[in-house]
Write a structure and sequence with these properties.
Elements lengths: L8 E6 L5 E6 L2 E2 L5 E5 L4 H6 L4 E6 L13 E8 L3 H31 L7 E7 L2
Antiparallel strand pairs: 1-2, 1-5, 3-4, 4-7, 5-6, 6-7
Length: 130
Amino acid sequence: MSLADENCVSLTTYRRSGEAVASPVWVAGLDDGRLGFYTTKGTGKTKRLQHTSRVTLQPCSRSGKLKKGTAPTAGTATMIHSGPAYDEVVKRVKAKYGLEAKFFRLIGSRAMSRKGFIYADTVVLITPEA
């Protein structure tokens, strides 16, 4: 099973100090082999990605517990805010996660707007290393 087929993956990003921080995320695969997910600009993930594009991915549960028998995959992340790749990731995440994606978009939009953020305004594209 590829990372694109997983329900959740643990995305590990790195603080300036080098400390690893893991977060479970939904991902969708793109035709060119990259993976993508959407998030909100200003979250911890996006702040850490401003300092380094180095990430690791590993299959996990929704709570972030790593799947036994799996290994991390290193990759490079890029954040985008518009364009064809942004639209493609949003479309594929919605298709893969269906009603769940709609539910979380509704809840997330309300919660983030209270904090002054725009929910799902950022797509993170990850190119896994071979």
